[in-house]
Amino acid sequence: MKASLAWTEIVALIIILKVCFNASHQLTGLQVCSLCAGLVRNNSEVDRFCSSSAGRIDRRCCLSNDNSSDPERIIGLDLSNCSLTTVEDLSGASEVLMVDLSLNPIVNISEKVFLGFLDLNYVFLPEDIGCPGGNVSWQQVTVEKGRRFCKGQTNMCNQTRQMSMSCPENSLCCPDGPGFFQCKCSESYHGYKCLRQGDFPPLKVFGPLAGSTVLISFLLWVTQRRKAKSL
Question: What InterPro entries does this protein's entry cite (predicted)?
């Protein structure tokens, strides 16, 4: 019995640590705006974009000022001239329209930095750094004055120049950021490669998961309570 409990505790600990690890490596909007000290630079691309969009400046971010939408939505991110050498996570600004990473000694940008950035339409980079997803992911790519400008994110599911994206039968191709796409099952299909037809059975899928979660939580509570009493 003790060995069984110990094994359960180890499994639960691994799950908890994994969840905490993933959460700690995803930046919130507040953290993204503070990746660089100061405010959006005066007369920068993001500053002008923010003014024309009637946004408001918050540190290095331009926030949407539209009361009918999310008031905390980041629409512009100015991380230019911040001495950045790598860029690994901007997940807190996934709804951003413009990102400026120019004037930085960047040597590496993670391939998945802009995964899920569906609204991103303007990116400024050091001239020796390629556009996210490659030139094929943008309608216009220009290099001048020491920086690269990527404009107009293209739909990878409608690509006819260099790539042709295909999804399994009974699924649809959906864009997922510059250079990315995902295949979503058509209505009434689900499962591996969308081969199963009919409504998705949430009870069968999430029922055992919920039950095991409750069981593990109960076992942890019992073991921790017993340890507390022994102390």
Answer: ATRAID
